[in-house]
Amino acid sequence: MRAFDLTPFYRSTVGFDRLFSLLDQASGEAAAPGYPPYNIERSGENDYRITVAVSGFSPAELSIVTKENTLTIRGEKSAPEAGNTAEVLYRGIAARAFERAFQLADYVTVKNATLENGLLHVDLAREIPEAKKPRTIPIGIAAPAQPPVIENDNQKAA
């Protein structure tokens, strides 16, 4: 059984706090490594990239879906062509169907997805709405209070 310490990720990421909590909980239940392997990278203060190893899959065999705060990446190999009569003696390259789901933090959206050299790169950005961003309120200096002017009855008579 493998034990992963995800504590360093809590300190170094902003957008995936819930993701690492879920991974931490799931690591005790899943004894076998997941397929396909993936990386989560932080490329800026609010920019992230998920890289999934999908060698052997074409863009048509992959799908990326976001619903609410869940990003789901699916891969399903198409049926082999009828004209291909080659007999496979050993199959070491995994080509099975897969589904990977990632829990995204609030306000994290998918910006782009590219397939390059057998790696699927999904670029994410955290865009906090202006209404949710902290505002700095300027503090002004109040003018000193003027003492009230009191009129005497003697001054009114004159």
UniProtKB/TrEMBL annotation:
Record keywords, A-Z: Stress response
Pfam families found in the cross-reference section: HSP20
Domain called SHSP: residue spans: 29-142
Domain of life assignment: Bacteria
InterPro entries linked to this entry: A-crystallin/Hsp20_dom, ACD_IbpA/B, HSP20-like_chaperone
Family the entry assigns: Belongs to the small heat shock protein (HSP20) family.
Name listed for the protein in its UniProt record: Molecular chaperone IbpA
